[in-house]
């Protein structure tokens, strides 16, 4: 589904991504781990060109992603859920979710709202459809953000710290949703600092440091038998705290 070859990205003289290469199978759940500043979030933001890459190649479902790619069409294929939810506070939950298909795909109001309700049911938040974001908990807002992204019916979903500041029950709910999406064949990439969450949901862990991929392994192998000293140091610090 995704091929990344020798990807590079810099801000001035600072190299954020250094010749990153890997592939993702259709329906695979990838979790990207690493210390702050390792390039994790920048990497996934390159997939829908929130961050344009400087060199290398990204191919998603057979299409090369570069400066000529039509962004609206790309972001219909590659959805993203942000750490801070980014819901419109003046719109209800239903309106937040129905807006993207209405604006981007020119769907009628009734069709867009039917689609939105379908995905709100999918993430178990349909009973809050008439409320506003301020009336919801953090975990509920995250579910709405996921439903809104799903309303574009993407093939790939990117999650940037989807469980940040959520309580354990809400984290478990997000994990269940991601597992359900994968079971339906959706490809997912997730950046997180939550080790238990990563171990539970991942088919494969990618570990990054200083803009490079140091390890790529099934979660059981990565968490019990990391190959590099850097990964062992990282895990010892994360488990300690």
TrEMBL record:
Pfam families (alphabetical): ABC_tran
SUPFAM superfamilies: P-loop containing nucleoside triphosphate hydrolases
Manganese as UniProt keyword: no
Domain of life: Bacteria
GO MF terms held by the record: ABC-type amino acid transporter activity; ATP binding; ATP hydrolysis activity
Keywords from the UniProt entry: ATP-binding, Nucleotide-binding, Transport
Segments forming domain ABC transporter: 2-235
Similarity-based family: Belongs to the ABC transporter superfamily.
PANTHER family assigned to the protein according to its UniProt record, in alphabetical order: AMINO ACID IMPORT ATP-BINDING PROTEIN, PHOSPHONATES IMPORT ATP-BINDING PROTEIN PHNC
Protein name: Amino acid ABC transporter ATP-binding protein
Species: Gluconacetobacter johannae
